[in-house]
């Protein structure tokens, strides 16, 4: 049990160090992209220290300067770490407003330009999504977990429609991603980070024309089936 405990203790200390260094550099150099580049270094440090091997298959053809909405299944807190490391373009992500209360994470969310949604205030949530859509149209990639929370089993839950509203409003491609193995490394029921192997399959984009012309719920169901295929995990009934 020693290694999982060490891994778990390393995560907050490494995060605090990286946020401090990257944040200071971003302010001094006035280069917001520096912080986003350092997010990949942060992720690599966690995975290397924790002896987590990540296998990646990338069929997306994603490129810098083109906006995308990336949708992935969600099994573990480590999913964000893994996707920062493996996606061809470092994404922003859509997260709940409550994360602003977490020390150091709140600074990282601000400096990284991530989108926070107040789920208790629909008007403010719509404003935040409209702002995110504008960023995406200008070439920013945003990551969304459309299940809304981490799954309690190795299955694909029902997809909420927010990610698909966002892609339609921005008029950009959707990139489906399937993750497997992360729940075994860090399950929802605990906080220990175990050595292990995580698989990521980044799928071919659903083109913008299909996104904008397909009815919302049909688009969500189609993408959910695609994520299930990419992850090799069954749909939750």
Describe the structure.
- With 237 residues, the chain is α/β, with parallel strands linked by helices.
- The protein has one domain (2-231): Glycerol-3-phosphate (1)-acyltransferase, CATH 3.40.1130.
- Helix content is 48%, strand content 16%.
- The chain has nine helices and seven strands; from the N terminus they run ααββαβαβαβαβαβαα.
- It has helices at 2-29, 32-49, 78-86, 105-111, 122-137, 162-170, 182-185, 208-213, 216-231; strands spanning 52-58, 68-72, 92-96, 115-117, 141-144, 174-180, 196-202.
- Strands 1-7-6-2-5-3-4 form a seven-stranded mixed sheet, with helices on both faces.
- α4 (105-111) links the parallel β3 (92-96) and β4 (115-117).
- α2 packs across α3 (78-86).
- It is globular.
- The termini are far apart.
- 41% of the residues are buried.
Structural class: alpha/beta
Give the overall shape, derived from the CA principal axes: globular
**Percentage of helical residues?**
40-55%
Highest CATH level, the class: Alpha Beta
State Rg. Answer: 17 Å
The largest beta-sheet arranges its strands as 1-7-6-2-5-3-4
Provide a count of the helices.
9
Structurally, the number of domains stands at: 1
Task: Give me the strand/helix succession.
Answer: HHEEHEHEHEHEHEHH
Largest beta-sheet details? 7 strands, mixed
**Total E-strand runs:** 7
Uncertain runs are: none
What is the percentage of strand-forming residues?
15-25%
| CATH-scheme architecture | 3-Layer(aba) Sandwich
What does the average pLDDT come to?
A: 89
Fourth CATH level, the homologous superfamily? Glycerol-3-phosphate (1)-acyltransferase
CATH topology: Glycerol-3-phosphate (1)-acyltransferase
Distance between the termini: 35 Å
């Amino acid at each position: 049990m020693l290694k999982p405990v060490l891994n778990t203790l390393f995560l907050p200390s490494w995060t605090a160090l990286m946020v401090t260094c990257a944040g200071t550099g971003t302010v001094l150099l006035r280069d917001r992209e520096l912080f986003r580049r350092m997010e990949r270094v942060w992720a690599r440090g966690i995975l290397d220290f924790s002896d987590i091997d990540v296998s990646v298959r990338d069929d997306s053809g994603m490129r810098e300067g083109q906006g995308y909405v990336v949708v992935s299944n969600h099994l573990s807190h480590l999913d964000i770490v893994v996707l920062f490391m493996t996606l061809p373009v470092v994404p922003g992500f859509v997260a709940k407003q409550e994360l602003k209360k977490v020390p150091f994470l709140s600074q990282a969310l601000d400096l990284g330009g991530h989108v926070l949604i107040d789920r208790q205030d629909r008007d403010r949530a719509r404003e935040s999504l409209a702002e995110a859509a504008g960023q995406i149209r200008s070439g920013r990639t945003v990551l969304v977990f459309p299940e809304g929370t981490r799954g309690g089993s190795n299955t694909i839950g029902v997809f909420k429609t927010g990610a698909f509203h966002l892609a339609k409003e921005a008029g950009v491609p959707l990139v489906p991603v399937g993750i497997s193995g992360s729940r075994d490394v860090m399950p929802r029921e605990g906080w220990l980070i175990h050595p292990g192997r995580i698989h990521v399959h980044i799928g071919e984009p659903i083109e913008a024309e299909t996104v904008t012309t397909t009815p919302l719920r049909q688009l969500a169901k189609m993408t959910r089936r695609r994520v299930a295929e990419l992850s090799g995990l069954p749909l939750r009934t």
